Amino acid sequence: MYAFEYKRPHAQAEAVAAFHGDARYLAGGQSLVQAMKLRMSSAETLIDLGGVAGLDGIRVENNAVVIGAMAKHSAVAASADVRRAIPALADLAGGIGDQMVRNLGTLGGSIANADPAACYPSAIVALGATVHTNQRTIAGSDFFTGIYQTALHEGELITAVSFPIPQRAAYVKFKQPASRFALVGVFVAQTAHGVHVAVTGAKGSVFRVTEIEAALTANYTPEAAKAVHVDPAGINADLHATAEYRAAMISVMAGRAVAASLAH
After folding, report:
1. In the CATH scheme, what is the code of domain 1-53?
2. Distances from the Cα of 97 to the Cαs of 28, 53, 94, 178, 260, in angstroms?
């Protein structure tokens, strides 16, 4: 690990003011700290957000679940408000990593890191969420821009994410057994704006599958989702799965997600 200056502010304004030069915000640290230990990432200054008050709240307002950027995965999974309003979101949070990761990892840290196989991006895109920062609001559909890339400006701080409450939704992932990241994860949501199907783990960034969305709009059944052939062009291939295998699993996981959403 390279040397760095450590700062732990206690207010949002103080955290933003501390960001200058080669600095990074530190949320749960489950990705950043490991990358720094391996010298795959570095920063001259780390700004620990753990002491900033008011960034970890969870509430329901205006037909949406609003989750603070520093809310832990375990808190989202255990929240009665989330379980009542969007049980799929609580289930997603409860399936991230292991218990230690869930007790330390945060919503804001996860989406700012934008790992191609992270779970939260699929919920943000499928539910049409809005990312709130200290500067503006960003539509979930515009937030993820590429592999480990987002629409955030330098020094911009995520404060919360608001998830509109869907008619029904579910998330199912085919996970890598060691890391528990998604080899293929599919979030299906029936929303006020139609059926959305968002996939993680299969490309460099989360994406929607319009063919499955069209099939489910016509016939919201597991069979309709599974019947769709997903083109493997552009799908990830690695030692865990070929592009063809992942493409086939997208339809299978979408079908399972539809079945789960109907069971809620």
Report:
1. 3.30.43.10
2. 13, 26, 8, 9, 21
